[in-house]
Amino acid sequence: MDSLLITGAGGLVGSTAAESFHAQGYRIVGIDNDLRGKLLHDPLGSTAWNLDRLAKVLPRFRNHWEDVRNEAALSKVFQDDGKSFRAIIHCAAQTAHEGEIQEDFQINVQGTLNLLRLWRHYCPEAVFVYLSTIKVYGNYPNVLQYERSATRYDLPETHRYFRGFDETVSIDQGMSSFFGRSKTAADLYVQEYVYQFGLRAACFRASCLTGGMHSGTEAHGMLSYLMRCAQTKTHY
């Protein structure tokens, strides 16, 4: 049976992708070790509840509680199921909060490289989808001249980025963050695998995403956490 590999399967995007593609008839192989709650030092950040939910509602879903930094563990997953993968959706990441610089690099860059090597070796015909971030653009969006309307600040309609930032925006010559730089490096590595080896991939540089499956905390996932505070009448 055709399968999809989804890293960060218990997260907002990973779990949504799992449900969507499962409904299309695919078997879903997840990789998620619920590191999010530990990194954020907050039980609200745990994705274990969502992984348990997926296991109950999706008959063809199976999660491997592994770390993307562990290449040996990833190799076993690819050895067992790699030939059936039609796509790899890589959502697992060190989240955008003030953490350890080395941790940013190890998870976001080394973890991605592990997957890229295994993708090329075991299932090069599959499509690699990388969940990147708007933070690759660093501080650039904040230095543009915005206009104030009745409800928001926005760029003029004549501005080239009025409908959103695209890949022509510079990703250097400006301040970013160590998280942003690690995601940029991984983004570029994915692109380089396409150029060097003729593989197929896409990088989606997402902005601030949220939804019902988001394990928001005060440190990360502000929109989700804000709604939780409103519902529970918790001071924000």
Instruction: Please identify, by name, the CATH architecture of the largest domain.
Output: 3-Layer(aba) Sandwich
User: Structural class, from helix and strand content?
Assistant: alpha/beta
CATH H level, superfamily name of the largest domain: NAD(P)-binding Rossmann-like Domain
Q: What is CATH's topology name of the largest domain?
A: Rossmann fold
Helical content (DSSP H or I, runs of 4+): 25-40%
Shape: globular
Low-confidence stretches: none
Distance between the termini: 47 Å
- In total, how many beta strands? 8
Count of the domains: 2
Query: How would you sum up the major sheet?
Result: 6 strands, parallel
SSE order: EHEHHEHEHEEEHEH
Into which percentage range does the β-strand content fall? 15-25%
Average pLDDT score: 89
Please characterize this protein's 3D structure.
This protein is an alpha/beta fold. The protein has two domains: 3-138 and 176-210, NAD(P)-binding Rossmann-like Domain (Rossmann fold, 3-Layer(aba) Sandwich); 139-165, no CATH class. 39% of the residues lie in helices and 16% in strands. The chain has seven helices and eight strands. The longest helix has 22 residues, at 101-122. The protein is globular and about 55 Å long. The model has no long low-confidence stretch (mean pLDDT 89).
Task: Provide a quick synopsis of the model.
By secondary structure, the chain is an alpha/beta fold.
Secondary structure layout plus pairing:
Elements: E1 3-7, H1 12-23, E2 27-31, H2 35-40, H3 48-57, E3 61-64, H4 71-81, E4 85-90, H5 101-122, E5 127-133, E6 147-148, E7 153-154, H6 178-197, E8 200-206, H7 222-232
Parallel strand pairs: 1-2, 1-4, 2-3, 4-5, 5-8
Antiparallel strand pairs: 6-7
Helix pairs in contact: 4-5, 5-6
